[in-house]
Amino acid sequence: ETPLRVAVAANFLPTAEVLRAEFGAERMTLHPGATGQLYAQISQGAPFDVFLSADQTTAQRLYDEGKALTAPQTYAIGRLALWTPGQPAPEFSQLAGFARLVMADPKLAPYGAAALSCVQRLVPTWQGQWLKGTSVAQAHQMLISGAAPAGFVAWSQVLTAPEAEVRLLPETCHAPLIQQAVLLKRPAPHPAAQAFWDFLFSPTARQQIAAGGYAAP
Amino acid sequence: MLHPDDWQALALTLQLAALSTVLLLLLGTPLAWWLAQGQGRGRALIQTLVALPLVLPPTVLGFYLLLLMAPSGPLVALGLPMLAFSFSGLVLASVLYSLPFVVQPLTAAFRALDRDWLELAYTLRANRWQCWREIILPLTRPAFITAAVLAFAHTLGEFGVVLMIGGSIPGETEVLSVALFRHVESLDYARAHQLAAVLLGMSLIALFIAYRGDRRVAL
Amino acid sequence: MLHPDDWQALALTLQLAALSTVLLLLLGTPLAWWLAQGQGRGRALIQTLVALPLVLPPTVLGFYLLLLMAPSGPLVALGLPMLAFSFSGLVLASVLYSLPFVVQPLTAAFRALDRDWLELAYTLRANRWQCWREIILPLTRPAFITAAVLAFAHTLGEFGVVLMIGGSIPGETEVLSVALFRHVESLDYARAHQLAAVLLGMSLIALFIAYRGDRRVAL
Amino acid sequence: MLRCDFRLTRGSFALSFNTELTPGITALWGDSGAGKTSVLRALAGLDSVAGVIPRSAVGYAPQGARLFPHLTVLENLRFGLRRVAVQDRWCAEAEVIEQLGLAAWLPRKPHELSGGQQQRVALGRALLNQAPLLLLDEPFSALDGATRERLGHWLRDVVQQHRLTCLLVSHDRDEVLQLADRLIWLQQGRVTQQGEALTLAADWAGPFADQQACSVLPARLQPERAEHGLVPAQCAGGTLWLAQPSVAISEARLLIHARDVALSLEPLPSASIQNTLPVQVESWRELNASSVLVRLRCGDYALWSQITRRALNQLNLQPGQHVHALIKAVAMVRHG
Amino acid sequence: MLRCDFRLTRGSFALSFNTELTPGITALWGDSGAGKTSVLRALAGLDSVAGVIPRSAVGYAPQGARLFPHLTVLENLRFGLRRVAVQDRWCAEAEVIEQLGLAAWLPRKPHELSGGQQQRVALGRALLNQAPLLLLDEPFSALDGATRERLGHWLRDVVQQHRLTCLLVSHDRDEVLQLADRLIWLQQGRVTQQGEALTLAADWAGPFADQQACSVLPARLQPERAEHGLVPAQCAGGTLWLAQPSVAISEARLLIHARDVALSLEPLPSASIQNTLPVQVESWRELNASSVLVRLRCGDYALWSQITRRALNQLNLQPGQHVHALIKAVAMVRHG
Ligand SMILES: Nc1ncnc2c1ncn2[C@@H]1O[C@H](COP(=O)(O)OP(=O)(O)OP(=O)(O)O)[C@@H](O)[C@H]1O
Ligand SMILES: Nc1ncnc2c1ncn2[C@@H]1O[C@H](COP(=O)(O)OP(=O)(O)OP(=O)(O)O)[C@@H](O)[C@H]1O
Ligand code: MOO
Ligand SMILES: [Mg+2]
Ligand SMILES: [Mg+2]
């Protein structure tokens, strides 16, 4: 029997792996991708049963187009973090001294948009250049490589980094990073689909999601 | 040393690369031969069309291919099975995307091939197939090696198209490059480095063997 | 017809592709010449190393290149400026990534070139440069066209490496492929189609001209 | 008998070729650029032409050898051979290799051979294709005289033995005279003369007229009277002594070069010139500042003699005068 | 004078070449595979060798033409020429094009030419390189006899006029005798004989001995006594009548082929053979079943005569006997 196929926005992949282990690794597979890419695939008939989007709009769009069985439900709320690998994280006001900052492309990822809005609010005088990755994962890679000194990533990505290097951004300076999921329409609904859907919103899952660096709804 | 999933991806990748390369050579050779026969506007156009997919970013190409292969797309309308998110779809996409790497060097080589060798071989009772095996292939071997190496290596590393068309279904469409992407996205850099090392090591050996075997055709 | 941002990306892309292609030819030609001189294990190894970047998924390659170019990386240690996230870095990455498309066909062509033509030209008072211009280049022109077309087209479409190395800074590193990718990923399909059409149209014309000009070298 | 009747054009050059090829060696003679290679290529099926072309397998040795560069000498030799059923082979590989002296080079690649060696391999490859029609484009042009002559004779034997049809392009008059049964003269893409080789050779307006004239006389040999390696031949009312041919034949045709014919008012009993024929002076024409070509009647045949103008004057030759033609015994003999 | 002294090996083939090249035409003679092309390539600097090689610009016409396939005939011809300063040019493009008959093909690509046409372009390209050392590898092998002879004479004139040093590979004995001043005989990669061409030609053990023997005699011409286009020459105690050379010369050396020499016990007053010399029989050796080669003493010189064994017997020749050598007047003359 084919396992349940869960398309997952790349930023949630590490946490999704944990959930999968909990749910039963043999019963489901994860299909990571950028949210936009996954949307394109799903709307062209990709055989995914569940979609964990990185935002609200994409999930809603699928629902509006009749591609989803259920209305979108929030499964996680992301937190944005400033990360300066190898150095103590600076005060936000000190950011003005950075010539370049890394973020996910605001056009492609809500975390990018959030980073943009935070900087505009906290350091309106900043005149530097944005280095944009296609996703928070790519932003993370740019920072890991050491080529860029500081940037905004998902908190979930830097949980294991030394605490001093990371500074969590106040949720007030950006729109909430609401990540929503939908159950997708399939010719024949997967027997495990509903079970996973229930599991995703179960307390156990919420606990894991919270442990993964998200605010569970 | 590798995770079983990665082994599966590796096997799938080799399958894809090998199959694509074989198909590319089978398809590209007659096409290149035809292209080499003349200089007409039609041929230049075909040659251009062959190279054209190359100028699109792989994910974008993948997107258009997806539109083409989708249940509502023209290929299905033509009666083909739905190829998106299947291994066959990957093969089709890889072939299309790597076609210029095969057609381009082969066309150049076929054009440079002196037609007299063939005609001489015909007078010496060689049939078409023997002409190919005994004259054309040996005399244009460097171009075939170029074509095979570029096609194989490019299929190994290609990722955007494959991810878009394939959707990373383990055992079906999750090839090594996609697995590598997955490791990187899930911040599992250790596994990513490991996989990259295996990929590089294997390719190093395969390419080295190909190049060592590429003895100069004495002219 | 195009958004001003896209125009800027287009200009940057053409600059990158043209510069990379020129550099690739300048770099690839002597390398291919040297590779064509013999068959030693060393040469096979170099040829392998040239093709090796191709087997890595572009973003992964980009990641490793970033490691290389980082302030603490070996390139800076060697005294180079920090190339990451700059146009120069893009050029370097593109050159590295497209090198096999140039080296591979040129090596094959140089190997097939009868050394006697050169020696004959030397007896006819041609110096090294004249030999190149009057003998080698015309006789291996199809391979140069192959090389240039593949390198140019691949640089146009290449995206993963560029994205990683460049960080898509508008006017500095945001090339057309990145812009196109962004439109597709952000579901801005209308603009994506438009940009893809422009890219394809332009490439169609450029490639068509290249192929029409590729007259058969009569042998 | 193979009918050929075709036309082709290449730029401003137009070729039209109409003949019937018969077994034996037919020489294709003509100036550089006359179209000889074009004829052979057409017959080999290499260029498509309009008209009739024999549909026969061919053994084609192109001008300039053209060995397959990626194959060894042996592989080149066997390229056609391999595809011929054993019972259809009449030309033995071992014989070809031995005759052409290729044994030492079999494992070599063509570029490791000298020009003449390559040419011999090309000839071998053509012969070993076991085809009834041989097309040889200047097959001996890069060979030294001795090899050339030996291979020529061997080729002639092979062609006769297996009743092959061989079209041989050559620029060498002696080679043509020694080897060819028939001769086709190509001028600017058209056949201007064709016929029996020796007859054409002796023709006043034939291809060899402006080089050196020669005559052809039929003779009846008497091998039973041979002495000192010479055999007497009754020819045009006289007796000529010829080098004894290796096979016993009784009919022969003698080719006598005009420059080998001297004239004397009286017979010469005490000279080493063995062969004299009584002849009658017919006419003469000037060849150059110092020599004339004299046409002599000799029984029913014409005989040419090239002498100096000074001799013509001193002997005071007159048309109708009876004189003695002195012929050096080394003239050529060819089977009936 | 150009000193050459080098060695090279190619597989099992070893070449060693040691000579001094002097202005004029030096023929390089040898069997197929003897190493002629290897010598020329080495002198052209195409292969690196150990030893001394003249450091001179060369005009090299390779075996098999080898025209640049991507250039037109005119571009091929001018390939070297373009790089020579105008004041250093001694060979005029127009003359070369006219003499070689290339005018009609200038815009063509090499593959649109016949074999012989290509060869002529290659010769032109070599000449137009304006180099003092010409290396010609069988430059006439694909040409018809008439063109060959005309071009040979023209080449000889060009070489003489500009005091060039020309190394000419040829398999054609007559060509060598007509054109070459010196002769180098290459056998299996070694120089076995070298020297003045006519002297070597007449050598009993020279390169031409096993083909057809010939003798060389010095003569004093008397142009003032010329008649009927013949000029008398005092030679080895007799008078020979020769075709008058185009330039007035008084010293000449005559090349007399053994087969052009007959013997008579008495002088012949009434025959067209104009030239007789009193000679003394020295010895003879058998050439083949029917003929012998007789060595005659003729003043201080040796003269060869090829006669039949039957004649030898009939004349009952004895060593020491005085006889008359009959020499056809068409023998070759070469300037002193
Ligand atoms: N790469 C090689 N390996 C071994 N032997 C070689 C190689 N190249 C040439 N030879 C040999 O060197 C010898 C000399 O060759 P070369 O071409 O100089 O002969 P040539 O005198 O020009 O003969 P031809 O009259 O046939 O042109 C030949 O016997 C040839 O087989
Ligand atoms: N593509 C072409 N365009 C125009 N003329 C051509 C072309 N190919 C050949 N010719 C001409 O055709 C004529 C015949 O050529 P061919 O090779 O048959 O001559 P050939 O008799 O073999 O001469 P050779 O003795 O020099 O080898 C030549 O005058 C040549 O210039
Ligand atoms: O998880 Mo995203 O949609 O690539 O930021
Ligand atoms: Mg020809
Ligand atoms: Mg040679």
UniProtKB/TrEMBL annotation, chains B, C:
<feature type="domain" description="ABC transmembrane type-1">
    <location>
        <begin position="10"/>
        <end position="210"/>
    </location>
</feature>
<comment type="similarity">
    <text>Belongs to the binding-protein-dependent transport system permease family. CysTW subfamily.</text>
</comment>
<feature type="transmembrane region" description="Helical">
    <location>
        <begin position="12"/>
        <end position="36"/>
    </location>
</feature>
<keyword id="KW-0500">Molybdenum</keyword>
<keyword id="KW-0813">Transport</keyword>
<dbReference type="GO" id="GO:0005886">
    <property type="term" value="C:plasma membrane"/>
</dbReference>
<dbReference type="GO" id="GO:0015098">
    <property type="term" value="F:molybdate ion transmembrane transporter activity"/>
</dbReference>
<dbReference type="Pfam" id="PF00528">
    <property type="entry name" value="BPD_transp_1"/>
</dbReference>
<keyword id="KW-0997">Cell inner membrane</keyword>
<keyword id="KW-1003">Cell membrane</keyword>
<dbReference type="InterPro" id="IPR035906">
    <property type="entry name" value="MetI-like_sf"/>
</dbReference>
<feature type="transmembrane region" description="Helical">
    <location>
        <begin position="82"/>
        <end position="103"/>
    </location>
</feature>
<feature type="transmembrane region" description="Helical">
    <location>
        <begin position="143"/>
        <end position="169"/>
    </location>
</feature>
<keyword id="KW-0812">Transmembrane</keyword>
<feature type="transmembrane region" description="Helical">
    <location>
        <begin position="48"/>
        <end position="70"/>
    </location>
</feature>
<dbReference type="InterPro" id="IPR000515">
    <property type="entry name" value="MetI-like"/>
</dbReference>
<protein>
    <recommendedName>
        <fullName>Molybdenum transport system permease</fullName>
    </recommendedName>
</protein>
<dbReference type="InterPro" id="IPR011867">
    <property type="entry name" value="ModB_ABC"/>
</dbReference>
<keyword id="KW-0472">Membrane</keyword>
<keyword id="KW-1133">Transmembrane helix</keyword>
<comment type="function">
    <text>Part of the binding-protein-dependent transport system for molybdenum; probably responsible for the translocation of the substrate across the membrane.</text>
</comment>
<feature type="transmembrane region" description="Helical">
    <location>
        <begin position="189"/>
        <end position="211"/>
    </location>
</feature>
TrEMBL record, chains D, E:
<dbReference type="Pfam" id="PF00005">
    <property type="entry name" value="ABC_tran"/>
</dbReference>
<feature type="domain" description="Mop">
    <location>
        <begin position="270"/>
        <end position="336"/>
    </location>
</feature>
<keyword id="KW-0547">Nucleotide-binding</keyword>
<dbReference type="InterPro" id="IPR050334">
    <property type="entry name" value="Molybdenum_import_ModC"/>
</dbReference>
<dbReference type="InterPro" id="IPR003439">
    <property type="entry name" value="ABC_transporter-like_ATP-bd"/>
</dbReference>
<dbReference type="InterPro" id="IPR017871">
    <property type="entry name" value="ABC_transporter-like_CS"/>
</dbReference>
<dbReference type="InterPro" id="IPR008995">
    <property type="entry name" value="Mo/tungstate-bd_C_term_dom"/>
</dbReference>
<keyword id="KW-0500">Molybdenum</keyword>
<keyword id="KW-0472">Membrane</keyword>
<dbReference type="InterPro" id="IPR003593">
    <property type="entry name" value="AAA+_ATPase"/>
</dbReference>
<feature type="domain" description="ABC transporter">
    <location>
        <begin position="1"/>
        <end position="213"/>
    </location>
</feature>
<keyword id="KW-0067">ATP-binding</keyword>
<dbReference type="GO" id="GO:0016887">
    <property type="term" value="F:ATP hydrolysis activity"/>
</dbReference>
<keyword id="KW-0813">Transport</keyword>
<keyword id="KW-1003">Cell membrane</keyword>
<dbReference type="InterPro" id="IPR005116">
    <property type="entry name" value="Transp-assoc_OB_typ1"/>
</dbReference>
<dbReference type="InterPro" id="IPR004606">
    <property type="entry name" value="Mop_domain"/>
</dbReference>
<dbReference type="GO" id="GO:0015689">
    <property type="term" value="P:molybdate ion transport"/>
</dbReference>
<dbReference type="GO" id="GO:0005524">
    <property type="term" value="F:ATP binding"/>
</dbReference>
<dbReference type="InterPro" id="IPR027417">
    <property type="entry name" value="P-loop_NTPase"/>
</dbReference>
<keyword id="KW-1278">Translocase</keyword>
<dbReference type="Pfam" id="PF03459">
    <property type="entry name" value="TOBE"/>
</dbReference>
